[in-house]
Specification:
By secondary structure, this protein is α/β, with parallel strands linked by helices. It has 20 helices and 18 strands. Bound molecules: adenosine-5'-diphosphate (ADP) and alpha-D-glucopyranose. Adenosine-5'-diphosphate binds next to helix 1, strand 13, strand 14 and helix 14.
Length: about 475
């Protein structure tokens, strides 16, 4: 009998994605399947999920889920099982999963995702006929209340529970006045429950109730013990220290396969390094850049403080001044978007900017640019540097979190030993990023070394194999402990 896990997530590839969480939640079922673990993913019934599921099969009904009627439908994502919480009042909205088309968070997010957690706890504890589970795995604050409802308000509090933090910066912190409407026992209002700095903390509650807390890289697991990275929850991380683990994300090779990428036309695949030249020409054309064999940088990112997009902006004149070019794909902070357009106007043919979200273009950039800039102030894992490694697009990363754990800096020792895979720099500020760009320019002038760095990256194994095994072992350890 496989071990049955309910994975609760607010997004999953290929149905709905705003960032790396979706990549991970989408890849996890296949990653653990070889280890006799069967994951069923529970997603909110956003329009995109409704559309993909079609009619689905009705498995459960709630007369009231925090005040709204809801249904549970089952179906599949690819080969894996899917459950969808159909609750039009909460999820049938145009816009993003968390906010409207203008980027404004929905005012009732506390209620939407508390209801999602309430439903997940009911399902995990066997209330939906024909669906039973050995363990529940919640991702990020949107799913975290699952654990609060399970451990504080269900008749099966012993079900083992894993809480994965993909980003400590998003905690789901709400005003204390929502507490009475959550339907939790009044004893839940305590430091050992959902209370957090005088409000209700969804992620905090999940971390408090979890049997094991994981985050997505070993370095980030250590960093979140410090205030700078723990963002108010460092105390809880430290108290629960022996229950906190770091498991690195992998690359889903069915989505990101350099040799056979289904997102891009066959001629753009990166079966050999030589093919990258054709792709580079295509990227230059798509971004209105001068044709040149000189280094072409890319950045594919949310444009936010976390991602260091402000510092990237500051360094663009220098990047162009030393002979670099940039093709950037991203969206986010409106002021940064406007300044990027300004930089492109200042440097026609040298800086090309595409504001928006474009999955296909992101694949083409990895397949055609020479180096990808990832100047994050913090990065729980980071996926774009992993895709860069796999595609021969050399990552240039801040030494933090998962970026520190996945890239080997091209320092003299690593170059001598022939093991370098990218460039790392310390501290996200103008001078550090400028120096990193200078190092890239110098390395690029040594074609043999450069090629070696690309090849090392392409050989590095960041598949889901090791991480899938690690999650499966963790699930087993927990179910055996409570058996
Ligand atoms: P985060 O989840 O913090 O945004 P990650 O590096 O873990 O960072 O994951 C980001 C994911 O989103 C990657 O798959 C990346 O390719 C994708 N991505 C980010 N911005 C864009 C964009 N503008 N267009 C297409 N894909 C994007
Ligand atoms: C978050 C983090 C990112 C991580 C992703 C998937 O969005 O910011 O570093 O790769 O989750 O775990």
């Amino acid at each position: 009998m496989p071990l049955k896990v309910l994975s609760v997530a607010s997004e999953a590839v290929p149905l709905v994605k705003t960032g790396g969480l979706a990549d991970v939640a989408g890849a996890l079922p296949a990653a653990v399947a070889p280890h006799d673990v069967e994951i069923t993913t529970l997603l909110p019934g956003y329009p995109a999920v409704q559309k993909a599921l079609g009619k689905g099969k009705l498995v459960h009904k709630w007369a009231s889920l925090l005040g709204q009627p809801a249904r549970l439908l089952s179906g599949s994502i690819g080969k894996h099982k899917l459950l969808m919480l159909d609750c039009p009042a909460y999820f049938a909205r145009e816009g993003g999963p968390y906010g409207d088309a203008g980027g404004q968070d929905w005012a009732d997010n506390w209620q939407r995702f508390a209801a999602f957690g309430r439903a997940a706890a009911d399902i995990a504890s066997g209330k939906a006929k024909g669906h039973s589970f050995d363990l529940v795995h919640a991702h990020d604050w949107q799913a975290a209340m699952t654990l609060a409802y399970l451990k504080l308000a269900s008749d099966t509090p012993d079900l083992p529970a894993v809480m994965t933090i993909h980003n400590m910066a998003f905690q789901g912190h709400f005003d204390a006045k929502v507490f009475p409407r959550l339907g939790l026992p009044s004893s839940a209002w305590s430091m050992d429950g959902v209370e957090n700095y005088g409000g209700v903390g969804f992620l905090k509650a999940g971390m408090q109730m979890a049997d094991i807390i994981t985050t997505v890289s070993p370095s980030y697991a250590a960093e979140i013990r410090q205030p700078e990275f723990g963002m108010g929850l460092e105390g809880l991380v430290t108290t629960r220290g022996n229950r906190v683990r770091g498991i690195l994300n992998g690359i889903d090779s069915t989505v990101w396969n350099p040799a056979e990428d289904s997102e891009i036309p066959a001629q753009y695949s990166v079966r050999t390094l030589a093919r990258r030249k054709i792709n580079k020409r295509a990227v230059e054309e798509a971004f209105g850049l001068e044709r040149s064999d000189g280094p072409l940088f890319t950045a594919i990112s949310r444009l936010t403080w976390q991602k260091g997009s402000d510092v990237l902006l500051e360094v663009l004149d220098h990047l162009v001044g030393v002979g670099g070019r940039l093709a950037l794909l991203g969206s986010g902070d409106k002021a940064i978007e406007a300044d990027l357009h300004g930089a492109a106007a200042r440097h026609p043919g040298r800086i090309g900017v595409h504001i928006g979200y474009d999955e296909t273009l992101s694949h083409r950039l990895q397949a055609g640019a020479d180096a990808i800039l990832v100047p994050s102030r913090f990065e729980p894992c980071g996926l774009t540097q992993l895709y860069g490694l796999a595609y021969g697009c050399v990552p240039v990363v801040a030494r933090t979190g998962g970026l520190a754990d996945t890239v080997i800096d091209a320092n003299p020792a690593a170059l001598c030993a022939g093991v370098a895979t990218g460039v790392q720099f310390d501290g996200v500020h103008y001078h550090a990023l400028r120096a990193a760009i200078d190092r890239v320019m110098a390395l690029y002038q040594q074609p043999k070394q450069w090629r070696r760095v690309q090849q090392n990256g392409m050989k590095a194994d960041f598949s889901w194999d090791a991480s899938g095994r690690a999650y499966a072992e963790l699930y087993r350890e927990l179910t055996e402990r409570t058996a």
